[in-house]
Design goal:
With 489 residues, this protein is an alpha/beta fold. 62% of the residues lie in helices and 10% in strands.
């Protein structure tokens, strides 16, 4: 019913537009404003000529080349503007110049300098679409989730992984908006570019009709331009919806089938990795650790802590005392002001929030560390299925994170931590937001996985009794300003 109502309103809008056009034609005279039915007839006649389609093709070719150049330059500039403040300060004046300056003020000098032809026309289209794309992508970069960036620094470090797993998926909606608006703008820009800098194309035909006062021809070529814009508006959403489907068909979405021998081999790898030379032979050592955020008083000073292989250390303390910061220092997400951190390079981290990539399935999120450690995708997903099964998520592997409950997301984050095949584990209020019974169950799952993969563990929690009642561990308290670690027992 709502769809029919909207269609009716759309049709009514067209009728109102045609009525206003007809009234303007009567008021001004048909020479100056041809009647709508006259323009429709002239446009149909124009489209019946082969030469018209040649002019349309020339314009479309210029639009596509110019827009792709503007899109590429705009994406690069937008990412740079959003990523670094220094680069933003350097590039923003250039972007604002082309965004705010009327094109006529620089198009005519550019054409006079470069001459008439394809190249100056394409350059004009590029420069008109460039700032729109740059500003849109730059806004997208400023909203890049910092939490997911930290997660990738732990589980999938490196520029390539960050770009593929975070930047491109996050910017996809912004790029879609930039393409929708930018391509239409490029078609309109082609009129300005061809009007002054070409001897063919739709813009040139509009110029020729205007200069010779062929008003009916002017209106019919303008109608052709509008039809081209409507065509782009109609096709672009369908292309955007079709790309993921094509990508899915290419990659395939068939469920992963793991043989019994594959699972046995993966279990063996999981349980034996600790015994390797690079495994749990190293503990976590915080030695004389001090830290302060920029222009602030010291948050902690001279922290000393050693967590031996296979040992579990639990740190508690008031909110805001610096417990999360201490874990980030241990994971090398922050650099200490003084002192040093000695820890394995391969760290497993369970954050306060789940930090699952919303555009990946649960199994893909879990397999993420394995994929970027060089495991074949099938083997990584088989391992992820095994860990998710251990975490109580059998049957949920191909769902997206938004389809899971809060407790299930915590389990998936726990499975991802062990998928890192970590040599040490850090846990920051890992099961916060859940009721006591759910937290107890998750601690039991953690301890079961840890028994298979016994590496040093450093846990920050407001509920130290929950873990200490289930397993042997050493308890500490972070207290004071600046914070210091003291043994709780």
């Amino acid at each position: 019913m709502q769809t029919l109502r909207l269609r009716f309103l759309g049709a009514a809008g067209v009728v109102i537009l045609l009525a206003a056009w007809g009234a303007a034609s009567v008021a001004a005279g048909s020479f100056f404003v041809p009647a709508p039915w006259t323009t429709v007839a002239d446009t149909a006649l124009l489209l019946s000529r082969a030469g018209t389609w040649t002019q349309i093709f020339i314009t479309l070719l210029r639009v596509c080349v110019g827009f792709l150049a503007g899109l590429t330059a705009g994406i690069a500039a937008g990412i740079a503007i959003g990523a670094r403040r220094e680069i933003a300060a350097l590039l923003r004046p250039l972007v604002l110049f082309f965004q705010g300056m009327p094109p006529l003020l620089w198009t005519i000098p550019l054409v006079a300098l470069m001459g008439i032809g394809h190249f100056p026309t394409i350059i004009v289209i590029t420069l008109i679409t460039f700032p729109l794309v740059a500003v849109t992508v730059g806004e997208g970069m400023t909203t890049l989730p910092r939490e997911l960036g930290e997660m990738l620094s732990v589980f999938a470090p490196g520029f390539a992984a960050r770009t593929r797993e975070l930047v491109i998926p996050h910017l996809a909606p912004f790029l879609g908006a930039a393409m929708n608006a930018g391509l239409v703008l490029a078609v309109k820009a082609s009129v300005t570019a061809e009007y002054f800098g070409a001897n063919d194309g739709i813009g040139f035909q509009i110029q020729a009709a205007y200069m010779s006062l062929r008003i009916r021809s002017l209106f019919s070529w303008a109608a052709v331009l509008i039809l081209v814009i409507l065509l782009f508006n109609h096709l672009l959403p369908r292309i955007r919806r079709g790309v993921p489907r094509i990508r899915g068909l290419i990659r395939g979405r068939a469920p992963v089938i793991c043989g019994v021998e594959d699972v046995k081999e993966l279990k063996r790898l999981f349980t034996s990795r600790v015994a390797s030379p690079r495994g749990g032979s190293r503990g976590i050592v915080l030695k004389g650790l001090s830290f302060s955020y920029r222009h602030r008083a010291a948050l902690m000073t001279k922290l000393n802590l050693t967590v031996k292989p296979g040992e579990i250390a639990v740190v508690t303390g008031e909110s805001g005392i610096g417990k999360t910061t201490m874990l980030k220092l241990a994971a090398s997400l922050l650099r200490p002001s003084a002192g040093k951190v000695i820890a394995p390079a391969r760290i497993g981290y369970v954050f306060q929030d789940d930090r699952l990539l919303p555009w990946r399935t649960v199994s893909e999120n879990t397999a993420l560390p394995l994929v970027y450690q060089g495991f074949p995708r099938k083997n990584a997903l088989c391992f992820a299925y095994y860990l998710l099964s251990e975490a109580g998520l059998s049957g949920e592997e191909e769902k997206k994170p938004d389809e899971l409950s809060g407790g299930m997301k915590k389990r998936a984050a726990l499975a991802r931590c062990f998928a890192r095949l970590p040599d040490a584990i850090l846990m920051d209020e890992p099961f916060s937001g859940l009721h006591a019974r759910a937290r107890s169950l998750l601690w039991e799952m953690f301890l079961r996985l840890h028994s298979l993969h016994p590496v040093p563990v450093l846990i920050v929690t407001h509920y130290p009794e929950e873990i200490s009642s289930l397993a042997a561990c050493r308890l500490y308290k972070l207290e004071g300003k600046p914070g210091r670690l003291v043994a709780a027992r």
